[in-house]
Structure formats: C-alpha cells, structure tokens
C-alpha cells in the first residue's frame, strides 16, 4: 500500500516529520517497506527562462541560449527545435543527474561553445514520453524555483506492507487513525459524508443473492463529462503507481486508496433495465476490464442487467458498461460483498484486483452511505452532472460484538502492564467503545478483532512492544534429560559417520520429474500445482536427486563424487526416514603407488552400507545378503541387507546402466539406500556394560580351500562352515577366491576358540572333518 | 708366561678390531674361544696346575677370555650397526612423493545449524519434535485459525497434492481433511504436539517446508524451525527473553539487539515480527548492535507471538488455563547470516565444491562446552 506524505496529511493533522512517521508506522505494525521521494532524483533541476537564443556558429541544429536561473545567467547549448527566447522551461544544472540515463551534467564545450547545463524534455526527466522538444512551462512559472517543488513532486511516497487482518489500513485514512492513536497527530474530520438531496429517478437495483451481496447501494449522476481528472488527483494517483485513466475511473481508484472503499461506476447508457446482484449462471461469460473473458459458475456473485453480466461482483467490472469519454450518465455502485465468496471467486478465476483484496478482507460495513456520498460529491465536483436520490437494497451486516476485557491481561498475556485508563484511551482512539465495566466493542472497520487477546495486541502495539521487558523462562526442575528422540539421535550418528567416511552431505529437492520417480518404483504423491514439471512428484527414493547431483558434479569436472543425503521418502503409507548415498567417478584416482584409476563398484556400496549400519548400531554380523534391490540397480551386482528374511535394512549395488543413461551418467556408479526406520531400536538397559571376560586361551586358526560349484554364494559357504561346530568355531571368513577353467576355488579361514583347555590334535581333526562335511553338503570339495 | 698372555691379548684384540666383516670376526672367535682356540687351550691348562699356581694364573686366563669375548661382542654390534646403516641407506625413498588422501566428508550447513539449534534449546529445556511434511489442511491451516477462505491462505502459496491422505493408514483420527498439501510452515507440529502431549510443553520442530515460490531469495523447498511453549503464566516477556537468549547463543554475541514489530499471524495474538540489528562491515552484513546505529540496519529473522486461544482450544486444551508462545524461523537464512552464504539456491544443488566450502567436518559436533558454532 503506497501513499504520499501529503495524502496522509489530508487525514492527519501532525507536526511529525517524515522520519518520525516512518518509525511510528513500523512501531504500530504497519511495516514500512520503502520511502522514496521523487524529488530526490530531480535535484539540481530548476525552473529557468530563456533570455536569448542564437544560432550555434559551428552547428546548424544547435542554438546557444542565455538562460536566467533566478540567481544568474548561464550559457547553455541546446538542440531542441522549440528552444526560443522567452520560453520558461527546466534547466539541469552542472552536477545534476539526468533521471532517464543517469548521466551527470558537467560544464562542457559543445562544438567549441561552453555549455553550463541542459534544458530538458519530459522524457529525460522520466515524467512522460514526450521528446520532441524541451518542456514548456507557463509564462508565469517562478524562475529559480527548484523544479520538483514547482511540479509538486517533492512529496515522499511511503510504501507499507499491510497484513491481511488490517483491511482498514488499505485506505490512507485507516493508517492516519493508527498514527493518531500512537500520538503522532490528530485525525481530521471526514468531509462530504452527508447525503445531498437528489434529483430525477433513483436507479433501479435489487438483490437476489443476499448471501453474496448483503447490501447494494447506488446513485445515478446524469449529464456529466468524463474528461481528465484534476492535476492534484492525477499527481496523487501517479505518485502511488496508479495510472490516471479518466476522471470517473480515477475517482473510484482515489476513493479506494483514500478510504479503502471500492466502488464501481457503470455507464448507464449501456445498461438495459435495472441492476441485480445475483448468482452467476453456470457457463455465463463476461469480458472484464482487463480485456480477458471469464467463464463464471453459480458459486459466484455478479451484478447484471437484463442483457447480461456487467461486474464480477467486488472483483472486476465488465468492459461493456465501462465508462468512456462519451459517457454522460452513470450509476455509482457502493456495495458490501461477502468476503468468503469474493475470496473463493477470486481464487477460482485466478483474478486479483485492488477491489478483491479489499472486499475479501472485509470492508467497513457501516461506511456504505458515507462512501457513496463522497464518491458522488467528487463526481459532481469534477465531472458535473446531477445526482439522483440513493437507492438502497439490503442491509450491510454490522455484526456488532463486544468482549468482556480484563485490563490485567496486558500484563499477564502481553507482558506489559499498562494502566487501565491508558488502555481505555488507546482503545477509544482506535475507535473501540469501552464501557465503564470494560465491555469493549470493536469498531465496524475492525472485523479482525475477535476476543480479549486481540485487545491486548491493540494495547501493546500502540503502547510500544519495545517496552515489553524480557523475562527468563523458569528452568524445569530436576536433572536435564536428553531432549532428542532415539530417531533423531540415530540420524545424527549416521550423518556424522557418513561424513567421517568421506561422504559429503547434500540436500536435494523432495520433488522429482515424473520419469525419475517412475524409474524408482513410482511416486505415490504428486503436486496438483507444481512450480514446474521437474518438481512434480514427491520422491519415492532419495537416489534420483543424488544421481542428478552426481551428474552435475562430474560435468563440472569432479574426479570423485561421494554424496549422501538424509531425508524422507514419500510413500503411500507415509514418510520414511532414509539415508541414501551415491559413489560416482573414481574411487581411487590414478597414482604412482596405486596405478590406474579404479571406478566404484558394488562392493564399495556394500562396504558403505555395512559401515553405516554398524554406526547405527545394527547387528551387522547377523544380516543376510539377499537380492531384489529393485529395477534401478544392476540385476547381478546388487542386493539387500536384511535382518531376518523380511526386514530390509538397506539396498546396495551398482546402478543399472539404463538408470545411468537416464541421468546422463557415464561410467559405473554405486549406490546405497538405508532405511533408518527399519533398524531395530537400541535396547535401553542402562549405562553399565557386561563384565569384560576375554578368553583365557589363544584362538587357533585353520585354513581350508574348497572347490565350489559356480553358483555357490560365499555367504552360504561361510554360514555352513560356521555352523559345523558352533561350540568351537567362533569365526570364519573367505580370504581368497579365484576362478579358473570353469572351477571356483574359495579359501576360508576358520577361527577355533578353546575353552578351559587347549585343543588336542584329535579335537582339531574332528572339527576339521565337520567343516569339510558341512561344505560337502553344499557341493564344495576340499582341494587336495 | 706373563709376557705370553699380554702378547696374546694384544694380538687378539688387534685382530678383532681389524675384522671388517662378521665372517672375519667369527674366525677370530674360533681361533681364540673355539674348541681348538688358543684361549680355550689355556683354560684347559688350569686343570693341570697346582692350587697355588691356579690361584695366580686362573684370574689372568679368565681375564683374557673375558676381554676377548667382550671385544668380539662389541665389534659384532658395531659391524651389525654399520651393516644396518648401510642397508637403510640403500632403502632411501623420496618422501616428497604424494600419498593417497583419505577423502574428508562434510555435514550440510542445514544439518549443522539444526544440531546447533537443538543444542541451544536443549539448554532451555526444549525437546525436538517432528511431524509429516505431507499434511492435512486441518493441521496446516484450520487448526491454526486459518479457515478456508482466509486471505492468509493466499499468502502461503501452497502446494496441493493430487492424492488424499488416508488418516487411518497413518494411524490418525479423521481430521476433516479436505485437502492434502505440503506443509507451508512447521507450525502444524505445534498442533500435533499439543494434541499428543500434556502441557507444560517446550519444543522446537525443525524441518522441510514448501511454498510455491521461486526467485533469487526463495526456493520452493526450504527449512524452518518452530518453537512452542505452553505453560501457565507465560507472557510476551518470556517470548522476548527466549528469542534474545536463542539468538545471542546462536551468533555467540552478547550485543545482539532485537526489534519486535507488531504483526499478524492468524495463529498468534499478539503477534510480532522480530528484526535483528546489523552493521555493515567491509561490505558485509554483520549481525550485532542496534539497527538504529549509524551504518546499521534491521533484518527480519523470525515471526512470533502468543499462541491464539482458538489454537489452544482446537487442540483440546483450555485457553483459560494454558497459554504460551510460538515462533518460526528460517533455518537456511539463519545459516546464511552466520556462515556467510549468499545464494539460497546453492543449498540444494549438491555441488561438492560448495559442500566442501560451506560444509562442516564430521567431528564439528555443536556442543555447549565447545561452542555451538564451528569456525
């Protein structure tokens, strides 16, 4: 909401300077977003008279002027065809900056003749498009006056951000009222609110949709001329960014900004029959003033005549009955539209307007008569014509309500004890009625106030929220307990474990292009109104975001990309906390020790998965490696890590070449997804750990080499070997694998732990026999 | 005899000292101390001597034996040391050659700042709460006193979802869901917490939030932290103290100055936006000091207020008994203000150069004792 300082002073009698007003606005909750004085960029431009004009000796099209600046006579070279002796115009003095191009004027020689400034065109001062010649001011314009002062441009424009609850401050008068309450002046009385007796027939209006339009007042003005609005109005509107159009349009805009009261003016000559506020018929269309055609639904309120719709009620008027230069008879509409209907209609049509933003926040329902009287007065004053009597259909919903208020609340809720009488004065200055027993009635223009807490806010914001003293929160009694949940602690652990393992944490979008989601099982959730197709489907996996990031990094020349992310996957049944990582590029760059560069492979992914699961406290020794990593992975180089046959803790492997292609990735990429909510909860059995009891005797190690069937999984062999003698064997691992001539050899190291007594040779032999027998059951033969 | 022994000793020690290798030294040992050795032979003569003679000759021969074996041992050690030295000299490697670096990972600034906030607020007794990002319009708006046609809904640029939420599948009571949406703020966690927990309540709720907004300073996804206190006798004064304490601890500066501006949020009453003062130092905004000081300014950092009685009532609590405050703050922005990033969009690009530049080492865990910030 923009307004000028002088406009504010139309309503506020104040001695406060601009700085005090700006501070005051912010203090009461009307946040100042900017203050700009159009005069600032016109500093150094002055009203000046051309005394003489001579041909430039070196150039046909230039003239050498002597110009009276009021304090001196300067020589100025000028190329404008209309420059002539006697002309009063605008001179830019050396040091001034030309607004249109930012050029700083200097004393300079033009074709050998010294020039001490520049006579300016309208366009050079950014005051219009005219560039055919220099500005011509009236003969009697006071020479020597700074041009912005002469042109009335020395008037700061203040831009405040109005929160949605303060419709009353979408008019300059409401802002003035707040400032007056804050002690920055006195609110001036509002003039022209008395209804004048009318002549001729009152307009025919009626309401059929009392819900959407509870009140519809109108007045005709006949025999008027719709020319340009007066300078003061054009200047005020221009200053706040409203383009002047015609007197009638400018008047409605002016009243809307001045008083927060939207109006509509119909060209009566283009109407057939009376006006009715009714629901739109389904499919009914209207060409609106913005040049676009809208198709309406029966949920929308319109103003129509016998021929059709002339106004999307409270939002935008129709082109057909809009006023023009030929308009002579008008009907001025001043109505109250239901805020919810306006909001829904505006949303449905995606149509915003100054009227909508005021109506949907709820205009003052008690200001219809005054608003109409002021509008009619302005129309008659500016355009002439004769006003008719007012027709009133319906009744505006005044909805008077009052609240029992305890002034102590300012202290007990607002933290600022304010004397009761001071509170009364504050509320009354804002238009609230306060009874002796503290029953408080908000003014009709404060629809937002709804209960004692709102009254506290009014008191605090006017008294000064900066006066609220900080009060320490009391410490909770007892010992401080951990404030993080087990889930949060788990996330922190795996995050820092991943970073410690050399992975960089990324944060990628929660939404994906549909194709990427499909490649990872498909998304269960998609946005109805995405910002772009690339951000449409809620991710079913964290990997697409990381793969896309990996591709960007590789494209930028990164040698190795190790990225991880902790976030949610959005599945039909809910949001699952997940850690994902991708390894792309070179696991190892080429080196004098290591030789050639090596890419990441599925085993790197498995190593990361196990390390992070271990950091998360998962029983990694008990996990089974199974298949079914999903279509995004290489079918032969991927797997799942499971606790029991069903609980999948992680998926790992080399990414499928087709997936890589879809992400424009060359070379192998390994990836892991770890399902944090599938991890078994840590058992909370206190801090004490079991007693430390290392075995008394040294373990014994024995190696076995087996020829195994080609499809035998190492894990199966190790499991069988471990199970051969559960008492003696405490560990087994594959330490060598090689395939040659269709045969695979696997070497297993078995750890045997003696108990009280050392093993004797016969015992070791017995265990070895059991190991060989167990392996044999899987088709593995001990190599000779 | 005496002269013979002295001559022998001298002769042998000279030979030992002259031995240039272990083999030559071994030859010396054999010729002196071996089975056929000259010293061994002398020792054998002791048996044939009279006791008196033995008393005289015994120590002398033994002395010779000891001197020789000591000399051999010393010479052996010297030769071995020289040999080792020679071997090591031959094993010299170029220690300037590069070694393979173990990659150092990083923690994203958003995570780091979330950890910092958890630490700061833990000290004030706040637990960390979470809630779903796919929300019902009831939790995100209605329960927060933002009814369907409220203009404040328009301020939120909401992303709506095509699919509806099955409350039963989520194990929740049906909350009259008309729309499912991506939460536009972390405030629905207030509602979920009040519905679930009995007061007194002190929580912060950090997490992802979404608005249909994209320009230089806005991304459609961003992070917020919500704070909520519900108790008896809580006033705007407690809110002010909590925010001051939080921001001072976060920026680790005592000169943090806050400016509260009356504002409007449908779910708080009274409401205030909070600005923090800064000064321009070497072309950068540095948080601290009053924004009204020369060269200073105010920057909006959070929104706050006393929880609206209607919100408390919507969660089944009695507003006459319980009151409290809430605040919400952008985490990405907090990170930018403290650590100096200037482009929000880079937060979500996954550029490892950026992550390594602005990220944090794994062991930079924010603690109160070590300081919550990581230099």
UniProtKB/TrEMBL annotation, chain A:
GO biological process: phenylalanyl-tRNA aminoacylation
Alphabetically ordered keywords of this record: Aminoacyl-tRNA synthetase, ATP-binding, Cytoplasm, Ligase, Magnesium, Metal-binding, Nucleotide-binding, Protein biosynthesis, RNA-binding, tRNA-binding
Domain of life: Bacteria
GO molecular function annotations of the record: ATP binding; magnesium ion binding; phenylalanine-tRNA ligase activity; tRNA binding
Residue ranges constituting the TRNA-binding domain according to the UniProt record: 39-148
Domain FDX-ACB, first and last residues per copy: 695-783
Enzymatic class: ligase
Cellular compartment(s): Cytoplasm
Known cofactor(s): Mg(2+)
InterPro entries in the cross-refs: aa-tRNA-synth_II/BPL/LPL, B3/B4_tRNA-bd, DNA-bd_dom_put_sf, Fdx_antiC-bd, Fdx_antiC-bd_sf, NA-bd_OB-fold, Phe-tRNA-ligase_IIc_bsu, Phe-tRNA-ligase_IIc_bsu_bact
Domain B5: 398-470
Presence of keyword Aminoacyl-tRNA synthetase: yes
Catalytic activity, reaction form: tRNA(Phe) + L-phenylalanine + ATP = L-phenylalanyl-tRNA(Phe) + AMP + diphosphate + H(+)
Catalytic activity, EC: 6.1.1.20
Binding residues for Mg(2+): 448, 454, 457-458
Gene Ontology CC annotations of this record: phenylalanine-tRNA ligase complex
Cofactor note as given: Binds 2 magnesium ions per tetramer.
Entry keyword annotation includes Signal: no
NCBIfam families documented for this protein: pheT_bact, YtpR
Oligomeric and partner information: Tetramer of two alpha and two beta subunits.
Annotated family: Belongs to the phenylalanyl-tRNA synthetase beta subunit family. Type 1 subfamily.
Name of the protein this chain belongs to: Phenylalanine--tRNA ligase beta subunit
Source organism (scientific name): Sphingomonas aracearum
Lineage of source species: Bacteria, Pseudomonadati, Pseudomonadota, Alphaproteobacteria, Sphingomonadales
UniProtKB/TrEMBL annotation, chain B:
Subcellular location: Cytoplasm
Enzymatic reactions: tRNA(Phe) + L-phenylalanine + ATP = L-phenylalanyl-tRNA(Phe) + AMP + diphosphate + H(+)
Location of the Aminoacyl-transfer RNA synthetases class-II family profile domain: 111-366
GO molecular function: ATP binding; magnesium ion binding; phenylalanine-tRNA ligase activity; tRNA binding
Record keyword Glycosyltransferase present: no
Keywords: Aminoacyl-tRNA synthetase, ATP-binding, Cytoplasm, Ligase, Magnesium, Metal-binding, Nucleotide-binding, Protein biosynthesis
Cofactor(s) needed: Mg(2+)
NCBIfam families the UniProt entry points to: pheS (TIGR00468)
Official protein name in the record: Phenylalanine--tRNA ligase alpha subunit
Species: Sphingomonas aracearum
Record gene name: pheS
